[in-house]
Amino acid sequence: MRALLVVLVVSVVGCMSQAEKDDVTNICFAADKAGAADIKDPSEKATRAANFLRENVKTEKWKTWLKKSAGMSPAKRTLELQRAAKDAGLSSCPLAEGA
């Protein structure tokens, strides 16, 4: 039974390509990766993170998600980011915590 559980967990996490995992990591840590984590002005922080994402998100799946996320409720965006982070093998997603 334990072996079956391990196989199921590996197969679920394995469904995301490395490029998708990289995109989720970039999305979750956009402020840090953009050098904006310590910026106090929310507008400047968001602009830097958005510019970083525009240049660094590579897959169509996550480019499309970014466009759709602008119209999502904060709760839905948070839930989707948390699920994606988990699927990508991340232990946290700062953007989801602040979404």
Short key terms for the protein model shown above:
72% helix, disordered N terminus, 99 residues, 7 helices
Write up what this structure looks like:
There is one protein chain. This protein has 99 residues and is mainly α. It is 72% helix and 0% strand. The protein has 7 helices and no strands. The radius of gyration is 15 Å and the shape is globular.
Low-confidence stretches: 2-13
What is the β-strand count?
0
Which geometry do the CA atoms define?
globular
* Overall pLDDT: 87
> Which structural class matches the secondary elements?
mainly alpha
Query: N- to C-terminal separation?
Result: 38 Å
- Rg result: 15 Å
> What is the percentage of strand-forming residues?
under 5%
Order of helices and strands: HHHHHHH
Main beta sheet? none
The proportion of residues forming helix, as a percent range, comes to: over 70%
Number of domains: 1
Count helical runs.
7
What is the secondary structure topology, with strand pairs?
Elements: H1 2-13, H2 18-28, H3 30-33, H4 42-56, H5 60-69, H6 74-87, H7 94-98
Describe the structure concisely.
The chain has 99 residues and is mainly α.
